[in-house]
Amino acid sequence: DNSSEFIPQCRICRRQAREQSGEGDHHEGLSSDEELTPTEVDEFQKSKDNVLEDSRKIFEDVHADFCDIRKILLKFQEWKEKFPDSYCDAYISFCLPKLLNPLIRVQLISWNPLEQNFTELEEMPWFRAIEEFSDAEDVSES
């Protein structure tokens, strides 16, 4: 079976071709088959920029009280304090994840944990707001 010999030979050929062409940016251990061409990188960046631009427009026509997670959670906190029975009967703790999901997803569109200077989830404003809300719920229940 020549297939086991074929793979190393291909790698040797690609390495020799890179050395002859002067490509010095290849990292050993990475397959050159997986490397993106400059055109592919440009297309990806343009597509990414378009998605980020579109994501900024999603909530531009929404009242500020309904697109800010902290403000939304404050409304629910007020409801819980003023009408605890109604709040409990509405199973709000089960509804909040579905309600906040689109708001959080928009904020995570540009988040990339593989970048060197990425923001930890725990440091993001929406995470802190949910954490504070959860702590307030735990205090009021106890």
TrEMBL record:
GO terms for cellular component: nucleus. It comes from Oriolus oriolus. It is found in: Nucleus. Belongs to the GCF family. InterPro entries: GCFC2-like, GCFC_dom. Coiled coil: none annotated. It comes from the Eukaryota. PANTHER family: GC-RICH SEQUENCE DNA-BINDING FACTOR, INTRON LARGE COMPLEX COMPONENT GCFC2. Residues 70-132 form the GCF C-terminal domain. GO terms for molecular function: DNA binding. Residues 16-30 have a biased composition (Basic and acidic residues). This is GCFC2 factor. Residues 16-39 are annotated as: Disordered.
